[in-house]
Amino acid sequence: MPDSASPLPSLDALLHMPAAEALIARFGRTATVAGLRAELAACRAARAFPTLPVAILDAAADALARRFAASQRPVFNLTGTVLHTNLGRAPLPPVAAAAAAEALASATTLEFDLATGQRGHRDEHVARLLREITGAEAATVVNNNAAAVLLVLNTLALGREVPVSRGELIEIGGAFRIPEIMSRAGAVLREVGTTNRTHPHDFRAAIGSETALLMRVHQANYAIAGFTAAVPPAELAAIAHAAGLPMVEDLGSGSLVDLAAWGLPHEPTPQESLAAGADLVSFSGDKLLGGPQAGLIVGHADLIKQINSNPLKRALRLDKARLAALEQVLLLYLDPDRLAQELPTLRLLTRPPAAARATAERVVESLCALWPDRAIAVEPCRSQIGSGALPIDLLPSYAVTIGGKALEALSAWLRGLPRPVIGRIAEGRLWLDCRCLEPADEAAFIAQLRGPADSR
Ligand SMILES: *Cc1c(COP(=O)(O)O)cnc(C)c1O
Predict the structure, then answer these.
(1) In the chain, domain spans
(2) Tens of pLDDT along 133-175?
(3) Of 150, 153, 126, 154, which is closest to residue 140 (Cα–Cα)?
(4) Quick check: CB of 143 below 6 Å from ligand 1?
(5) Residue 287 near residue 83 (C-beta atoms within 8 A)
(6) Which residues of 159-169 are buried (b: 16+ CB within 10 A; e: fewer)?
(7) Coil, strand or helix: which one is 200?
(8) Span from the CA of 455 to the centroid of ligand 1 (angstroms)
(9) Is the C-beta atom of 172 inside 6 A of ligand 1?
(10) How many whole angstroms separate alpha carbon 90 and alpha carbon 96?
(11) Among 145, 339, 350, 448, which residue carries the largest CB count within 10 Å?
(12) How far apart are the CA of 172 and the centre of ligand 1, in A?
């Protein structure tokens, strides 16, 4: 309807302009009409009457572009935390990402056995590899490690007691707290020992007729130093087995290979836990393992069977895309010689400081040309592994640091780029740790910095 009370163009007139045709082609007629209506209403409400219809079309185009823009987007993680939970943790190797995309787009053998033409088991695609890599009798997978811990406790300890050292009653980010998971799983937490010291006799004294299992939790993202004592896994397993109980270990990150082989700090492996006598071990798929979000459980076949028959397993199971990605990532572990090249997580963690430095130097050159008035430098820094793995150990790296005023505004500008750049502000500078800016991404990174000069 033309609006006779105002000098605004009618909706109909706007829709007949070529710019509107372009919007319809891109966003569809319904959204375009709604967008133009909203823009006309806003002009009326503000009593702002643009003289040119094109101004209304431009405003509508901006609003439509914002409405249709994906909210989850790839970013440059220059925070210095390699496995950043808020930034999606492990980046997948291209083979795994491609397998996930292919699985999503087509029918697959998810639960179908090609040899027999009968129904198959979805977990078997990855369970076979987990058995081979860890030497475990059996394996299963769920949504994440929090789900794995929940499922193990609910299956083996429903309505019964689980002694845990007071030094291991951890909270990790995102509201995962051992005492709370324990109670939601229907198990009764029995606190043992003290925060800094827990002894074998503390566990022996806690075992009673109601005890379901003994549990060990990896101290993710914190460390206790000084006058400390903990019961080593082998000893805890021996105490459990003497009482006819299983010993369960939540490894948190866990690594399927000994990271010390690449000069990284050692992180406990499920293989070591099993060798020490753990009956079940759970760990994450998207921490040091370098795969998609998943919770992996390996251990005794009879216990895994009980876990798989728990009705909650169905509620926590993995989808075909993540199973496809995880299978590809586990396949990379069959060739340890090429792992540090093919698995992005390991490649980033083992990246030589000199390589990060060379990247930082190239980035600085472009930044100095962009912002001649700012203090921009290459400085040594320390990267974190992240996701609770190895909280104390830091990896030497190099960062681009940017000084000067309005660092918050500068960092907001970097977050506003087509592929947002996420750094961190510390000691009066903005730090862009170049460990995770790999040569393949460098050109794209530098090219997009050339935004409109007035916004810098
Ligand atoms: C990270 C972690 C978890 C949770 O794992 P998600 O895969 O994030 O669910 C549980 N326990 C420990 C010790 C952890 O470090």
Answers:
(1) 11-68, 76-85+347-455, 94-340
(2) 999 999 999 999 999 999 999 999 999 999 999 999 988 876 7
(3) 126
(4) no
(5) yes
(6) ebbbbbbebbb
(7) helix
(8) 41
(9) yes
(10) 12
(11) 145
(12) 7
For residue 384, pLDDT beyond 50: yes
Ligand 1 centroid distance, CA of 142 (Å): 13
How far does the chain reach from its first CA to its final CA, in angstroms?
Answer: 43
Looking at per-residue confidence, does 157 or 452 come out higher?
A: 157
Q: How do residues 325-334 score in pLDDT, each as one tens digit?
A: 999 999 999 9
94-340 — its CATH code?
A: 3.40.640.10
Task: Please tell me the distance between residue 152's alpha carbon and the centre of ligand 1 in angstroms.
Answer: 14
Which of ligand 1's atoms lies nearest the C-alpha of 149? Answer: 10
Rounded Cα distance, 135 and 131, in Å: 5
Residue 219 beta carbon below 6 angstroms from any ligand 1 atom: no
Atom index in ligand 1 nearest the CA of residue 388 equals: 15
What is the pLDDT, as a whole number, of residue 452? 47
Among 255, 193, 265, 176, smallest CA distance to 230 is for 193
Predicted confidence (pLDDT) at residue 63 exceeds the cutoff of 90 = yes
Nearest-CA residue for ligand 1 atom 15 is 252
Tell whether domain 76-85+347-455 is in CATH 3.40.50.880: no
How does DSSP assign 354-376, residue by residue?
A: HHHHHHHHHHHHHHHHH-TTS-E
The C-alpha angle 298, 314, 252, rounded to 5 degrees, equals: 35
Residue to mutate, 85, 87, 141, 145, ligand 1, most ligand atoms under 8 Å from C-beta: 145
Query: In this structure, are residues 284 and 290 in contact, taking their beta carbons and an 8 Å threshold?
Result: no
C-beta 388 within 6 A of ligand 1? yes
User: Among 407, 333, 337, which Cα is nearest to 374's?
Assistant: 407
216 lines ligand 1 (CB under 6 A): no
Fill in the DSSP letter of residue 81. B
d(CA 387, ligand 1 centre) in Å: 8
